[in-house]
Task: inverse folding
């Protein structure tokens, strides 16, 4: 017998788990659509070169890549943004701007597994292209907060840590970090929240930074207050002006209780150019719930003309862990509304007629196909979470009647088929 377990790092979705996934996705879709976003999709299989433009990035080593039967190098998508970039470039100049799109793709990465992280997952992606102002970034934050509110999470439980890559740029410029060293320093800075100060200092020292530069980076990027950041970077700081504008707009949306400034948020991908953010459970027990930011220079890395863009990715695994911990996962019944049961095989055609009538009215109906006892049918209807059991019994059917039992109250009635 073949292995009954799925491939390591993947998941099976039995009906109860599928109901939960559908519930989560419905809230993803509703939050995006409430803000005027349209859904799109792309193939799960892409050209491998779409993800290997820059050697050394984590994503290159995590690809599920292979050669297809035509000798082409292809890969299962590890993220959606490159596919989106390809789609936008394919219709460059023809798409009306701004583009406000979302998707819920399945993504694949061969990486170390932990709580809230597998090797396949679904990721809610929400992006705005063609809008250069910070208003677009705030619109994404509004989508996020709308989702959290819909699933019963409050600002006291979830916070969105916000910064800007311009903060990092200004700090590193001030200490003379540039060129290839800049990207290497960014990788260390992205881990500041996870490293002890001495560990971070040691890693930055290995990259050639002196003690003064290291102290400046740790001090400024460790700030959690915009006024203190302004004092450190100066009143003419473009990064401070951008963040103050973002906060003012967020206040108009009523979002500020969700937000907190965190200078250490830089995001790992090298193409972020402006505001960046991550949502975390405030208890700190789980990894980031989601993350994103502005990436205005992505298209040029594909050989196209750059277009302002901002977006976020929101995986399905961490949020379910968080909702489980908080006791917010719903108890979801199946979709069956009616169970139709013929007491003997001779009444099976009549039962099919009754089931067909109900389905034509939009009812979800499960017809018992086998010869079973009434006790079994009642248990089956209860397992299905059905509202009613419709029983076709010889005496009642001779009078043209169907016996209907309300499974919540136990009340029974006899009804002609036309009145069902």
Result:
């Amino acid at each position: 017998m073949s292995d009954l377990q799925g491939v390591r790092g993947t998941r099976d979705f039995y009906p109860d788990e599928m109901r939960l996934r559908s519930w989560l996705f419905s809230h993803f879709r509703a939050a995006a659509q409430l803000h005027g976003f349209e859904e799109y999709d792309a193939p799960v299989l892409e050209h491998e070169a779409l993800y290997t433009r820059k050697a050394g990035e984590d994503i290159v080593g995590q690809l599920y890549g292979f050669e297809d039967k035509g000798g082409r190098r292809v890969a299962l998508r590890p993220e959606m943004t490159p596919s989106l970039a390809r789609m936008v470039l394919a219709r460059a100049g023809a798409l009306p701007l701004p583009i406000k799109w979302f998707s819920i793709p399945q993504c694949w990465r061969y990486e170390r597994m932990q709580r809230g992280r597998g090797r396949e997952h679904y990721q809610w992606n929400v992006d705005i292209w063609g809008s250069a102002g910070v208003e677009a970034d705030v619109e994404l934050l509004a989508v996020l907060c709308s989702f959290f509110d819909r699933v019963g999470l409050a600002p006291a439980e979830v916070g969105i840590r916000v910064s800007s890559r311009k903060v990092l740029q200004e700090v590193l410029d001030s200490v003379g970090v540039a060129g290839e060293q800049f990207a290497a320093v960014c990788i260390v800075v992205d881990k500041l929240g996870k490293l002890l100060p001495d560990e971070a200092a040691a890693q930055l020292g290995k990259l050639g930074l002196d003690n003064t530069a290291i102290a400046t980076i740790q001090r400024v990027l460790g700030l959690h207050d915009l006024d203190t950041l302004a004092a450190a970077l100066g009143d003419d700081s473009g990064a401070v002006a951008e963040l103050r504008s973002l906060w003012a707009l967020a206040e108009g949306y009523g979002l500020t209780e969700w937000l907190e400034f965190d200078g250490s948020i830089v995001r790992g991908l090298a193409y972020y150019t402006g505001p960046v953010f991550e949502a975390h459970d405030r208890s700190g027990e789980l990894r980031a719930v989601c993350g994103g930011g502005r990436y205005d220079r992505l298209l040029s890395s594909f050989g196209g003309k750059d277009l302002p863009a901002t977006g976020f990715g929101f995986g399905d695994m961490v949020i379910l862990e968080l909702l489980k911990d908080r006791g917010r996962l719903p108890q979801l019944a199946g979709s069956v509304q009616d169970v139709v049961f013929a007491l003997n095989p001779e009444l099976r055609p009549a039962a099919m007629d009754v089931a067909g009538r109900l389905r034509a009215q939009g009812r979800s109906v499960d017809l018992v196909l086998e010869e079973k006892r009434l006790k079994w049918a009642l248990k089956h209807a209860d397992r299905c979470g059905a509202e009613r059991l419709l029983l076709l019994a010889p005496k009642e059917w001779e009078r043209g009647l169907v016996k209907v039992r309300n499974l919540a109250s136990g009340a029974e009635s006899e009804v002609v088929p036309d009145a069902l």
Q: What stands out?
A: The two ends are 48 Å apart (CA to CA). The chain has a mean pLDDT of 92.
